[in-house]
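Researcher: Here's a chain I'd like modeled. Treat it as a single chain, no partners, no ligands.
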Amino acid sequence: MLTTKNEFREKAKRWTSFYRHFPHEFVKDFLKINLTFYQSLALYQMSHYDNYTLITARGLGKTFVTAIFCVVMCVLYPGTKIVISSGTVKQANLTLLKIKNEIYPFAELLQREIKPSNMTIINDGSEWRFENGSTIETVTSSDSARGARANILIVDEYRTVDFVVFRDVLYPTLAAQRNPRYTSKTKYKHLKNTEPNKTITLSSGWYQYHWSWEEFKKNINMYASTARKAAVLGLPYQFGIKDEVVTLDTYENAKARSSGDIAGWMMEYGAMFYSQSQSSVFRQKDLNELRLIPQAVYPREVLGDVDLPDLEVKPRGNGEFNVVCCDPAFAGGEGDYTAYTIINVVPSKGRYLRRVIYEETNEGGIHTNTANRIRQLYYDYDCSYIVLDVASTGRAIYNELAEEDDSHYTKTQGFMSMNNDALANSSREINPYAKENIFTVYATQDIRRLALTALMDAVGNRRIHFLATNIVAEEYLMGLEGFGDLSDEQQAALLNPFVETNALLYEMSAVETEGTGTTRKIKHKSRRDDRYTSLSYGNYFIDLKEREYIAETNRTKRGSSNFVMLVN
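Model: Modeled as a single isolated chain. Structure tokens:
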């Protein structure tokens, strides 16, 4: 029992020192939370290292650990100023939401440290103030963060942050040194400004071309040299299974939904940085810079299953048209996939901009089902053309498409080849009224080379755009009223085109070539290439249509010029 004020202070000092050294014990005693082993390890390292990078698998509670850390620092170190930054304020505010909803209501002692009135969450940036003078501020990772001051900087999902912003805007926020009150006393003045500030970067894995990898390596090198206090920690999904935070089934289901995107799976769940082969035709850096479409366009059955008016299909602009492309499964067996790609084509600066607005794959299937799915997508997206590989099983699919069909929303007159007379004639025998709007492809080496060259040109000249990353997609969808009320299956259906796009870009990054010119051979380092093939043939067709568009535009210009001359 404490009998004097000095005894109380001495005990408080000892316990404070103990808790600062072992923060997980403070969490257990003060917050009544028992952390898992990996959570305790992450919290310990965050507390003890000045430069720290944490790479975690999805589902391991990175935001929860960050929330715990913020509480620990703000309580144990009075006057702490924390700035949490992310690609958007909404993402940064997730840490505050964890504190407010999952920690604060069950921690009586914490309720003495911060008043509910000081826990307002604002979409354009929040600031919480503790009774001991500590603060937590959230900002977006942009120029708007200028003026924020902190002694602890946390950059969440730092791979989504521009390096220039990190270097010139976020890092300079570390201008607020924490000076404990005792340093105001004469005998302790020499200790003022001696407590180092902290930089903590958090993310899932990403590509090694990105600056996030360099930041990760920098902290590794500092740790190895012991020149400065730095550390890194990678937490793959196995930690979650071992500590029973998630089940193996959860990750197996996520892997199944990854649609063969091995690189994406290892980055998201393996906490790894992916290194692309130097001989790859398409650089992952270039492809990711083209992920500029924040919203997918969905088939009718997906939209019909959810009540989200913001996702309704917008009417096409003048001169736009849509193309449905299909690379059919070779034999319809297990492990063999059919890929469908929807490309929205937009006239832009005298050329065609390709917007890949939807990607879908399904395993196996018979040709009748594939033909029906092509019809469905054709009418759902109000397409003008179909691009189809007619080699092998593709020929049976083509024949099915030639027939009239009334099993979908609109009775179809049938389709036939627009570029192959022999195929067109065979279709007329099936249905003389079929519409000539299928661009048929026989996947010869020559065609594959031409398609690859055309796609390289589209990527190199930035005339092709893809759906945004999962992070952007999730943030957009979570912001829609009613999205949170959907079932897991419905939410997964809305996110699936973005997952498929991840797999598409992985397939593209795995394309390699040998030789040059007409002898150049195309190799695929990935197990699958169906999405890439579907896109490349579709883009090749659009290239041909673009030439017609340019020629027609030039004829129109010449005609206008001649008319002016005649008038004059």
